[in-house]
Here is the input.
Amino acid sequence: MTIKSTLAGSALATAISANAMTSTNNIDKPFEYVVDRFADIEVLRYKVPGFEQLSLNQKKLVYYLTQAAIYGRDILWDQNNRYNLQLRPLLEAVYTNYNGSREDPQFKAFELYLKQVWFGNGIHHHYSMDKFIPGFDRSFLEGEVKKLPADKQPANLEDLMRVVFDPSFMAKKVNQAEGADLILTSATNLYEGVTQKEVEDYYAAIKDTTDLTPISYGLNARVAKVDGKVTEQTYHLGGLYSEAIAKIVENLEEAAKYAENDAQRKTIEALIKYYRSGDLKDFDTYSILWVDDTDSQVDFINGFIESYDDPLGMTGNWESIVNFKNLDASHRTEVISSNAQWFESHSPVDPRFRKDEVKGVTAKVITAAILAGDSYPATPIGINLPNANWIRATHGSKSVTIENITQAYDEASHGDGFNDEFVPDQQMRELMDKYLFLTDNLHTDLHECLGHASGRLLPGVDPDALKAYGSALEEARADLFALYYLADPKLIELGLIDSPEAYKAQYYKYILNGLMTQLMRIEPGKDVEEAHMRNRKLIAEWALEKGKADNVIEVYKADGKTYIRINDYEKLRDLFGQLLYEIQRIKSEGDYDAGCALVETYGVKVDPTLHKEILDRYAHLSIAPYKGFVNPVYTPVLGADGEIVDINISYGEGYMDQMLRYGRDYSTLGK
Ligand code: ZN
Here is the structure.
């Protein structure tokens, strides 16, 4: 499970974590965080402090893992839509072949479209899931395609033109609208020629509900109808995506040579075995080895992991993040995880749904070295894996906060005018300046390390019982756990925070975001669809309504603008506890109807008047609703005998250059 940045462009604290800025890097001008800006996107770069201090073996390990990461890119593109890998090379060829005026409005609109497609890893927006609308004419693109050499001319130009120019064709990557056939109305390539009912029947027939250690059904497979029969097409070496997986495996094999210890080597080898077999039991074996490897400094995820983009929440999008532990900042998460049982035992849920014994929640603060697949360019700021409930219950989970990413967000947002516009109370602004960076990071720690890891299902409850609402409710559960404990004196006792007021900065921002400011990411007339956004809206709207009698949260107008005020922070904390109680019950009992009602009532529908106001207010600020990152470039330095004597890291690559380079050097599928 992942946590995403709660709000692009929120002015976070001015304080910078002490450990984040001390590294050297090989550029002498001030670090430029902002790389590019287009449409609703701002592209940043991030530093990798501490990379130079790794040993040569660790650097080589990181290097080969980053290669294994980038080589998986095409898998995600193809998962997202079956035309993506035909369109991308075509668009890139048109772009590089173009020799007309760069100021031509048609060309400029084309360039914008290409930037958007790159950012979305395909023709749909990474967050709203809507297909991008081109601002150039079909005749422009057709004319430019005709100028390409014969070997770059697509055989199915007519189909591709329809994909680009017919807005109703494959309009939505993932549809979550209640009542529709979620598979037939979604444009993802995780299913082909099957209805939602056929897929549900298929899995109902093969799922062994008495198995206490079930595989993650459907995690690494496309489901298609072959000769009239519903069939799983497994992603593995020799199966679907074999060419990409071969490159991943090749680089994992290199990486294994530089493993820091036996446990890590075995983990990498288990992952290779799984990529070869496609057997989900092998994936579980790998996941257990991975979660048990807590001694290594370098770590990674690489595979089919999160299922947010599957309308049925089963198939994992391919992704990879390579990282290493930030030893100083990890003290914070170590304190939290070593007290995990205390938090679990005091959590405001029905004791029947608590874990009697919290197993090995390990949490650390990490420095990302590469972002890839579904974590690139838009990336999570925290991750908690593995996702399989039974592995979490018996082996625990690893939870991370990616602090060089949160730090880049924070640095890039200074002075963006957000607080001036949305936080009228000077005292609150000061509190946010002082404590928001810390409480944001603590929120992520608590969400990932304790929230997702807390609670248990009643025996026999299907982990997928909440279906399309499962992701939003799971995120709400983890957020509520974090919110509830942010206000707990225990955090002061543990030395994690030095003020009993600090949590108020986080509460204020959370409610402001859930009720108002996150709407800036939604297009007029649209509903809230993404799981993390639904969760925040659900929590904020529910607390607003349930606290009405006591005026806990006040929504008021001044000079025609809407603001919020929190009148009773203690009662708000109590409300968070009550909602956590209910959502834990829903999850533990698999109460689909109650889960559906909660999400649909509080998490989906947007007030059009308020929405318009928010969009107007944002339009006056220069804040992009979404942010993402370019990666640093790692280059082996060779010695006299051709052996690697160092790995150089550089940060100067621009957004388009990186995308074109990845397209040129790391294409593995398609054609
Ligand atoms: Zn989460």
User: Anything to note?
Assistant: Residues 454 and 470 are 16 Å apart (CA to CA).
